[in-house]
């Protein structure tokens, strides 16, 4: 596997520039380089339960909170994933800087990783029964949430849910790894924010705005003027 380590924005820019001319590459950031590439439903404690036994009660209750009902189970899974339920979907994005933000925004004392993945399979918009699906495929449901659209998001679907993309015996395409050194993570947050990648732009709602303002005020000494006002 191709692996690079970055210590600066120049290093990061150089590392991701190779992907610019092929828009099939997708990216995922993880806060800890040791974590596997498996969905939440495949991790503890969720892997000890049937995914459908978790999903179906959520689905029944979710009707009370949404206006537009998803058309199929894959659309429902994308909605559930968007709102934090443990599913067999794993988030990816076409935007490497958005993925980088998710890699560095947590676990500040751990090396992070930015994965680049080039699949041989086309992106699926429908899967008849996602709970019976076997293998790993790219999916982009039609009813994808606006926040995910804003992040240029799509998913891999894993069957079973604990199938690790890095260890899948029939893994297709290429996976490459950019390690973001823990000593650079804090500075990288400021640099990404300067170029328009922060809580407000990636989560364009009141929650994202509040988190961004809190972060800005908490780190106001970074800027020369030390102002609490955001642009």
Question: Which key terms come to mind for this protein?
Answer:
alpha+beta, 8 helices, 2 domains, four-stranded mixed beta sheet, 17% strand, single chain, 231 residues, three-stranded antiparallel beta sheet
Structure description:
The protein is an alpha+beta fold. It folds into 2 domains: 3-184, no CATH class; 198-231, no CATH class. Helix content is 31%, strand content 17%. The strands form 2 sheets. It has a 4-stranded mixed sheet with strand order 1-7-4-2. A 3-stranded antiparallel sheet has the order 3-6-5.
- Which value, in Å, is the CA radius of gyration? 18 Å
Give the biggest beta sheet.
4 strands, mixed
Q: What is the tally of beta strands?
A: 7
* Alpha carbon gap, first and last residue: 41 Å
Overall, the morphology is globular
Class based on secondary structure composition and strand pairing: alpha+beta
Q: What's the pLDDT, averaged over the residues? A: 88
User: Low-confidence spans: pLDDT under 50, at least 5 residues?
Assistant: none
Order of helices and strands: EHEHHEHEEHEEHHH
Fraction of residues in β-strands: 15-25%
**Count of separate DSSP helical elements:** 8
């Amino acid at each position: 596997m191709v692996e690079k380590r970055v210590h600066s924005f120049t290093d990061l820019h150089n590392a991701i520039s190779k992907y610019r001319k092929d828009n099939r590459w997708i990216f995922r950031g993880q806060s800890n380089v040791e974590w596997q590439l498996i969905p939440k439903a495949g991790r503890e404690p969720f892997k000890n339960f049937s995914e459908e036994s978790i999903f179906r009660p959520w689905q029944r209750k979710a009707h009370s909170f949404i206006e537009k009902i998803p058309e199929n189970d894959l659309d429902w899974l994308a909605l559930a994933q968007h709102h934090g339920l443990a599913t067999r979907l794993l988030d990816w994005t076409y935007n490497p800087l958005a993925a980088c933000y998710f890699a560095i925004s947590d676990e500040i004392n751990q090396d992070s990783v930015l994965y680049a993945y080039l699949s041989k399979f086309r992106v699926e918009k429908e899967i008849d029964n996602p709970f019976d699906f076997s293998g790993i495929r790219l999916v982009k449901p039609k009813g994808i949430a606006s926040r995910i659209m804003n992040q240029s998001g799509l998913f891999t679907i894993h069957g079973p849910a604990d199938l690790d993309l890095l260890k899948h015996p029939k893994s297709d395409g290429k996976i490459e790894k950019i390690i973001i050194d823990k000593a650079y993570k804090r500075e990288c947050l400021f640099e990404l924010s300067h170029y328009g990648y922060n809580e407000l732009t990636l989560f364009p709602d009141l929650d994202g705005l509040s988190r961004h303002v809190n972060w800005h005020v908490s780190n106001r000494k970074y800027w020369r003027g030390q102002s609490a006002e955001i642009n």
